[in-house]
Amino acid sequence: MGWGLVLPQLLNGLQYGVLLFLLAAGLTLVFGIMNFVNLAHGSLYMMGAYFAATAFGVTGSFGLAVAAALAGSIVLGIALERLAVSRLYSRDHLDHVLATFGMVMFFNEITRIVWGPQPYFLPVPAFLASTVKLFGINYPAYRFAIIVVGLAVALGAHLLMHKTRLGMLIRAGSVNPDMVGALGVNIKFLNGLLFALGSALAGLAGVMAGPILSIQSGMGEPVLITALVVIVIGGIGSVSGAFYAALIVGIADTMGRAFLPMLLREAMSRQAADAAGPALASMLVYILMAVVLAVRPQGLFPAGRGQ
Amino acid sequence: MHSLKVAPALLAALLLSASSLALADVKIGLSGVLSGGQAVVGQDQVDGFMLALEQQGGKLGGQPVTVIKEDDQLKPEIGIQVIRKLLDRDKVDAIVGLGFSNVLMATLRPLVESGTVAIATNAGPSPVAGAKCAPNVFSTAWQNDGAAESMGKFVQTKGYKRVYLMAPNYQAGKDMLAGFKRFYKGEVVDEIYTRVGQTDYSAEIAQMQASKPDAVFAFYPGGMGINYIRQLSQAGLLDKIPNYSVFTVDGTTMPALHDAAAGTVSGAMWDAALDNPENRKFVAAFEAKYKRVPSEYAATAYDAAQVLDLAIRKVHGNTADKKAFVAAVKTAGSEIKSVRGPFRFNNNNMPIQNYYAFQVVNQGGKLVTRLLGTPLPEHKDVYFAKCAAK
To answer: Which of A58, A101, A111, B248 is most buried, by the most CB atoms less than 10 A from its CB?
Structure first.
């Protein structure tokens, strides 16, 4: 295995990881601080992609598509929080799951009704359409841009969490929400703001994934499941945990898909390796999660104590 | 009290007269996936069938027709409920559609036992083409291996020596690659099976790039195909490695692929670009009515309606005699003017048809599909000998 083979896979893993981070960050905040299980987070990602594709179809501008995705998913997130989610905070997790699973179905059907069953199209912006040369390999410029944007957002999130008053409140809320409320902080407003922030990140992930993926009804679920794996590995409620875990999951999944069948071929017959390789590769992140849950149930980078 | 007793009787009488009225119509059940990620396939089937019906003034074989649409959700367990409902409750004269291979296989038994005319417009699994063939189960679509076999033949004739194969890790994916290898005799550099529904192919694409094959063959239906082709294009590989595929670049995915599809070659039994009078008429009418280009799924359903039209005419609307109706469908198959060119049912009721190679080319900024050739003319699947029917 030469460097030329490993490096592109590392970059692919990194790119997948930062995309997962955008989703997992919002999910972990809502879960960790509001103690709310939001399965509809993937729907916000899907809606962000749809808003972007529609805006692009009308204006032809990728910048406006990004703006539409962000604005649209923030508005949608706030509306969801006010209309439905805020009424469910006091209920238990099973009710959260029930209600937000209903929302998943609602959004999947509404996209089919409004946009039709055919997949939508969002192109790569022209200035990112080519490939870039990195350490002697050609890498798609758009994927590289995703890495850059994702890392920038991660840095922004780090600064927000650790250098601002808002971040302090969020961190405090993730450790002891009752005490934060008792100290006179408007926890209702904080919750709304957090939900909107999570929605914006999901929308951003949607628009960034748009040019790589097909935009269609139900695109949110597979990525939501992986994002849930990420927050479990990272430790629920911890943004930096979500970041590291997203990178671990992204790289593990990519490396597994790329090299596991190859390694298995060394150990067993080609036919057996071809059958076991893909199956094992797609299980890899779940095995990782199971191991983490067994060894460190609170996650690798839990909120509060370590920070 | 009195009026209360009369009401149900009146209702029953009304229902009775309504159902006897409906009996005058030929009832067609139309089943397919109409929700979820693959709904676009089912929608094209419904639209193709309804277009043919509309062109006949809402009649088939001169008989007024009632169409009952059902969504199988691409789930075998729902599919079987749908088929049972159509057969037992609606007592339809024929069922068209029958969904994807997995759904068809699950519903095969009640279909065969009913003896009702069943026309698959989306599948031709190998068991149904072979030992499990049945006189009343037809396919106006394809035997599943056909398109992949045609690409294998085409790539073989092109003289490529090292080919890279990719497909999702499930039965159809394995069948497609097996079909390809049945006619391609060169070296298979690697055979990659990816997770079903996988959205990101960057890892596999990087592996492919590193192994420097002469050509790539893949099977990625629906959304997977869009992701796969676009990501190849973004990696700059579509220009470098000739790309062959089946059920990947077609009418359902082109709207989302745009320029990324340019240069790809597809094996199929039909494309909107196919130049014959029936097809030109069909494509023009479909585009006028639905404002989009039809896919092969619309074409097979359109042809199924043609077959039924002719068969119902042959039995003079008397579809109650199931055996005679089944026989009429079989002969109608070889008499219709199919939009795909030559067409007839083999002894296993699978189509004998041409498999073409099409290429999407960018002509002055506009994408057009070009016919490259017919690798497998009037092709029969390899399973028909296992079918007991003559």
So the answer is: B248
pTM recorded for the entire structure: 0.82
Burial class (CB in 10 A: 0-12, 13-18, 19+), A124: buried
CATH of domain B146-268+355-385: 3.40.50.2300
Type of residue at A193: L
Q: Which token pair is B75?
A: 């789930």
Which residue in chain B has the smallest CA separation from A124?
A: B234
**A61 and chain B in contact, CB less than 8 A:** no
Q: Domains (ranges, CATH) in chain A? A: 3-295 (1.10.3470)
**Interface-testing mutation among A9, A105, A118, A270, with chain B (most B C-beta atoms within 10 A):** A118
pLDDT in tens, chain A (307 residues): 567 778 888 999 999 999 999 999 989 888 877 788 899 999 999 999 999 999 998 998 999 999 999 999 999 999 999 998 888 888 888 999 999 999 999 999 899 889 887 788 788 888 888 888 887 788 889 999 999 999 999 999 889 888 999 888 888 877 777 888 888 888 788 888 889 999 999 999 999 999 888 888 888 988 999 999 999 999 887 888 999 999 999 999 999 888 888 888 888 887 777 778 878 888 899 999 999 999 998 888 886 544 4
ipTM, 2 decimals?
Answer: 0.78
In angstroms, the Cα distances linking B61 to A82, A307, B94, B310 are 57, 76, 13, 6
Nearest to B250 by CA among B315, B206, B289, B299: B299
